[in-house]
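Appendix C reproduces, verbatim, an entry submitted by the partner laboratory led by Prof. M.T., so that reviewers can inspect both the input and the predicted structure.
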Amino acid sequence: MADDRPVPLDEYPVHQVPLSMKHVATGDRNAYDRCIFHVIDDEGSALLIIGLGVYPNLGVIDAYATLRLGDTLHAVRASDALGDDRMRLHVGPVSVGVLQPLREFVLECDPDPDDPDGLSFMIRWSAGFPPLWEPHHQQRRGGRLTLEGKRFVQAGRCHGVLRVGGEEIQLTPDRWTGTRDRSWGVRTVPGEDGGRLAEDHPTEGFHWLWSPVHLGDRFLMVIVQEDADGHRSLNDATLVRPGHRDRQLGWPQPEITYRSGTRHPERALVRLGDIRKPMELEMEVLTSSPLALGAGYPPADDWQHGTWQGRDWTDRRTYDLTEPHPLAGYGVTDHAARFRLDGRTGHGIFEHGSFGRHDPSGFTGFDSVAP
């Protein structure tokens, strides 16, 4: 018999439906609730990504941390059975401590007792701006809703310490930028057959750009999602400046320069603007972390989010990024980047994925690359 006793979160007046906070309002197996943090070295030598998610209808909690340092990607992944205390954001060696909601966090990865040179860290992540809602995000395959997410994003600064390979790296707020994304809803978890709708509605192409940028006294968020023919299903550009109303910057027009023979971006120019003042956002990639390696995003073949690995599962590994990793080319990549806008220089993430046909870029299919 299921244990339906109240859970600690039921003590608080936060209920949205007449259910215990142990349950979500949907029975969809793909329900999720997770956070992602980026820790960016402004000089481009390192990019740390930390994520933690829960999957209430699968009974799973999992987390990951990946560090790109030079040409090596260090990864820690952990998974466990989801318990009743949803305010305890801790799985295996990885934890996210909420010191002050929407403002202050502590990100930790405990050392590996069997490998003292493995990845570990303790980092204070501090928001520099109020959270910004992203557009409501929906995707359908045929008539079926396959993704519906509510998300907000922030940028800030980081300080603390990273340890890996016998090296200790001190993080200081003047050099280390932070961005983060908080999302929940429904998002496909591996383990189900798409059935007739997947067969009748194959994906011809997908083009994605998600870019939070810290620009000193202001914060910019740009999002673009396009189908194979360039039709946009997600579109936004907003500039946040504390003490001022958020400024809408119209329809972003990205021009991405790819490395020859690939779809790996090296730089980009994104035209922004409103009726008052058009602007141009310049982007230069500093270092890159493919999310299909270590971080559990599709089409990863060694672990993906929400999949049951058994209790107390932890996995640590490294990837040599000088070697070819074919799956990485068919997944989204987070690029730590330097940006320039309206005379200001800043840093942030240029998250990009382009697969299959994309008419505006001149890509004709899944095997098409930049000349």
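The mean pLDDT is 95. Additional entries are available on request from the coordinating office.
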